[in-house]
Queue: 3 jobs
Job 1
Amino acid sequence: MRISDLELLLVPGLDGSGPDHWQRRWEQKLPTARVIEQADWSNPRHEDWVATIKREIAQATRPVVLIGHSLGAYAAAAAIDETTRGKIAAAFLVAPPDPGNPAVRSFTIDPAFKEKAPQAALQVPGVIVASRNDALADFSFAERLALLWGLDLADAGDAGHINAESGHGPWPEGLMRLAGLLSKI
């Protein structure tokens, strides 16, 4: 499927994605992409974030691809789990953090992100892109999550948290992985 046939809904994580983050750059580069803006990026509430995503999905006029980063991957997965399947074409989830990781526990995050995370396959084609040296999740956690959610796993190598701070501003490799996913739907 071509990007022009889809709505690419970008779902940032905690504190949103700054202007140098690949999600904001993709929003500028891809004509059918837009960032889903949350009311409060710094104090995420699961119910609010998921409701905002579901509202954006409902307003979409084309099939949707949810592109979530970090905590946004959890919110996107929960929205998929609660949405009519026909509306969502695919999921592209990048660097989901491990809620049990001490670095993640140091953030003030609504525990519902973990408690209400889907516990079965999402029933949409998709991929989790994970790094071998992400401080917020071991690669083995991403492997287990991909298996649980029924998604493919893409090994990004030693890529940190796959954000601007780890050198992933434009992230052309990510666009290539996204194109690979879209070629399968």
Job 2
Amino acid sequence: MLQKIYNETSEHMKKSIEAMKKEFMTLRTGKVSTAIVDHIKVDYYGTPTPLNQVGSVTNLDATTIAINPWEKSLLPQIEKAIQQANIGVNPNNDGDFIKLFFPPMTVEQREQIVKQAKAMAEKAKVAVRNVRKDANNKIKRLEKDKEISEDEAKKAHDKIQKLTDEHIEQIDASLKLKEADILKV
């Protein structure tokens, strides 16, 4: 019974960290990543479709992304979607494909992106703490229903806290790596 709670708790905490790392991918670092455009949806015959499903998205170099649509008629919709996404650059449409030229980041931009990363990490920590709260409530219910003893409940709460601390440390470590990556010139 308790082992099932531990396993579920650990699994949910891992998912919180994975979600944070996925969010980190959308942040710009010194080298531009195609993940910056992953969240952009294009109006594809009335259906919002991810950009990478209507064309190929590639890195040409450290500061340029090229988008080559499979249907040339989609160029205006792709251009409009990129402008609406407000990712800090204007699309350059040459009639065949779209290029996004990202200028080198200023110190202020880097600091702003670090703030965004810290906010994402804090959101992940809140999610981990919420998972801890749910697990502790389940343990309290088991104790109240006399399915486990008071001592077992105390040990279970301690184990849940230990899991929480481990996952918070992982979040902090990931944030530290991302911060170094963003600030690296």
Job 3
Amino acid sequence: MRYLHTMLRVTDVDASLDFFVNKLGLVQQRRVDVEAGRFSLIFLSPKDQPDAQIELTWNWDPEPYDGGRNFGHLAYEVDDIYALCQKLMDEGVTINRPPRDGHMAFVRSPDNISVELLQKDGALEVKEPWASMENIGEW
């Protein structure tokens, strides 16, 4: 397993970029603007640690983030998403968003912290029983 990023929701993208880039000195690694979903993902890291990223998620339509909703999730890259999810289920962990696509899953820690699991090198071939599983809870 390899650490990927920690996601933070931001309400003012310009102020957030000013803080993280201009004041803290992080550099932008990549940015994805999703017109259909009306959000942007901006990945930042220290100059000498490009793999230690935070993901700023900016939803274009304003919404309040109370109760800690501005913290999104931890993300880890895994070698075999199906094997890990099966192991976690066997150990009593609820899979909130099963890896239906062979690429992404979400689980929750005992303290209800969302953990995203992403398949290394893209997606595995879609297979059952994962393909037909529904979301069990909110990510």
